[in-house]
Specification:
Blueprint lengths: L2 H34 L3 E2 L9 E5 L11 H15 L5 E5 L9 H11 L7 E4 L5 H10 L5 E6 L4 H10 L3 E6 L10 H24 L21
Parallel strand pairs: 1-6, 2-3, 2-5, 3-4, 5-6
Length: 226
Amino acid sequence: MDFQRIAQRGIKVALLALLVLIALPLIARGAVALWAARFIYAVEEAPARRVALVFGARVYASGRPSAMLADRVAAAVDLYRAGKVEAILMTGDNSTPDYNEPAAMREYALALGVPEEAIALDYGGRRTYDSCYRARHIFMVREAVIVTQRFHLPRALLTCRALGIDAVGVAADYQRPYGYSSASLTYSLIREVPATLVALLDVLRRPLPPILGEPLPLFPPQEGVK
C-alpha cells in the first residue's frame, strides 16, 4: 500500500474542504448583498411603510449610544419627520439589568424630538433573527422600513422578508467613516460574512427566539388580516 500517495490525497481533500468552507460564506454574503440592493433607499426616496424597525447596537456603560446606534436612531427620526413612517419600533438587547439598548435608543429619539407615543420598544431583540421574528409575530408588523448600517442591511432584509415582513431598507451611515472606529467597522464587515450564512440557515429552520410573549400589535388589527 502506497501510504505516501494516500497521504497526499488526504491532504488534497482536506485543502479542498477548507476552500469550500472559506468560499461558501463569501458566496452567500455576495449573493444576498446583490439580492438586497433593490430594496435599499435613501431616506427621501424610501417608500412609505407604517413602521420603522430600528436594530440595536452597542450602548456604553454611561447609557450613551455608540456612533452606529446613534446613526440608526437618527435615520429613523428622519423617516418619521418626513412622514415615511407612523411609528418607530426599537429592538435590541436587554439581557441583563444593566444593559438596555432599546431604552438608550428611546432616550436619544426623544431628545431628537420624536413624541413618546410614536415609539415602541422590543427588549427581546438579542439577534437580528429574533428582532425580525418578534416584529412579525409579537408586534404584528407586516411592513417596515428597516434602519441599520449598509453592511447589515442585506442580512436584515433577508431575514425580515423571509419571515413575512414587506421590508425595505435605509442605510444609517451618517457618521461613516469618521464617526466609527476603524476596528469596530472592520469587525462588523468581517462578521457579516459568517452571519449571513447563519441567517440563511435560520430562515430555513425557523427556530423560535428565546423570548416570545403575548402579541402586542402596534396598530389595531385590520378586519380579515392576521
